[in-house]
TrEMBL record:
Domain spans labelled Nitroreductase: 15-201
UniProt-recorded name of the protein: NAD(P)H-dependent oxidoreductase
Pfam family, one: Nitroreductase
Keyword check for Flavoprotein: yes
UniProt entry keywords in alphabetical sequence: Flavoprotein, FMN, NADP, Oxidoreductase
Length: 223
């Protein structure tokens, strides 16, 4: 245990689910871009990046969201930046979709003769290994799971910069998606809402200590 350990634990102890931000302090554009870049660099299964990050700067939309997103009502008036993270649906994540073809050819630059074997492996993974094709929801939830890796990374990067955050699942998904669709911010054929995350600077330090189960209750060493 050295200074590096203290630094790392310091960052994770600093981070807490901030309920009220200092409304006079805004996160700088460079900092928010860095946080988003960390999200973009996050790992994903097969490298298919099944996400999109919506930075909500529209006050009208925030107002409209208030009634469908109970989990962000306390933060809404004072937060600096609100990000809605979308996850891709079956239309895109299925092995024979345009999106997967685009990812493999244009983004991953997989050599032509490698594409089919890779797709076979992916098809088998979806059908057999994880059985994600039984219904629309399973594959969407699998895409959502991956977006949470970006969430962890973004909140940690923010904490490293001294920026506070709060992850938000407190919303009615159907109503929020309908609202975003109406505002032409969401194409529900391709995406659904995974979660939201608020950033800003805390108004006050947390009023209570972190509650966590003891280390030995959550860690088991298999010898
Ligand atoms: C996926 C997820 C969703 C959450 N949704 C909300 C939310 O809607 N509103 C809220 O105030 N806090 C929300 N939280 C914050 C948790 O309540 C909080 O992280 C937990 O109680 C642990 O406290 P700490 O983050 O301060 O250490 C959420 C946390 C996670 C990880």
């Amino acid at each position: 245990m050295g200074r590096k350990y203290d630094e790392i634990l310091g960052v994770h102890n600093f981070r807490f689910a901030c309920k009220e931000f200092d409304e006079n302090r805004k996160v700088s554009e460079d900092d928010i871009k860095l946080i988003l870049e960390v999200g973009r660099l996050s790992p994903s299964s097969f490298g298919f990046e099944p996400w999109k990050f919506l930075v909500v700067e529209n006050e009208y939309l925030k107002e409209k969201m208030f009634s469908v997103a109970w989990g962000v009502q306390r933060q809404m008036p004072s937060l600096s930046h609100l990000i809605i993270v979308l996850a891709r649906k079956k239309t895109d994540m299925i092995y024979n979709s345009k999106y997967i073809k685009y990812m493999m050819e244009e983004i991953q630059h997989i050599p032509k003769d490698m594409i089919n074997p890779r797709l076979d492996r992916y098809k088998n993974f979806l059908e057999e290994d994880f059985q994600l094709l039984d219904d629309e929801r399973s594959i969407f939830d699998w895409a959502c799971k991956q977006t949470y890796i970006a969430l962890g990374n973004m909140m940690t990067a923010a904490a490293e910069l001294g920026i506070d955050s709060c992850p938000i699942e407190g919303f009615h998904r159907e109503k929020l998606e309908a609202l975003l669709e109406k505002q032409e911010m969401l194409d529900r054929e391709h995406f659904g809402v995974s979660y939201m995350v608020a950033f800003g600077y805390r108004k006050e330090d947390p009023s209570r200590q972190k509650t966590r189960k003891p280390f030995n209750e959550v860690v088991e060493w298999i010898k």
